[in-house]
Amino acid sequence: MDTKLKLYFKGGTFVNNPKIHLWLNGREIDADLRAKGFEIEESIQDDGPLRIRLKFGLRDQEFVLERDSGESLDLELKYSRLWGNFKLKPRV
To answer: Residue 60: which CATH number?
Structure first.
């Protein structure tokens, strides 16, 4: 059964609005994801943990989430300018 994923990024103020590269379980999401914000919805068919990989500038991060088959995930990315990294948390 598919897992439904909603991923939201509020964005921030970036002079050149750079692209954010996103992979879900090794498959690159070919959407115009930019640092000024985005919201995507994807269905993931693989079983097992969900791997979310982000590349933003020189920074490369990966998150691994345990999930149940058929579960819906509503997640939010937060970016820290101080540390230059992302945090992933459930969206409320």
So the answer is: 2.60.40
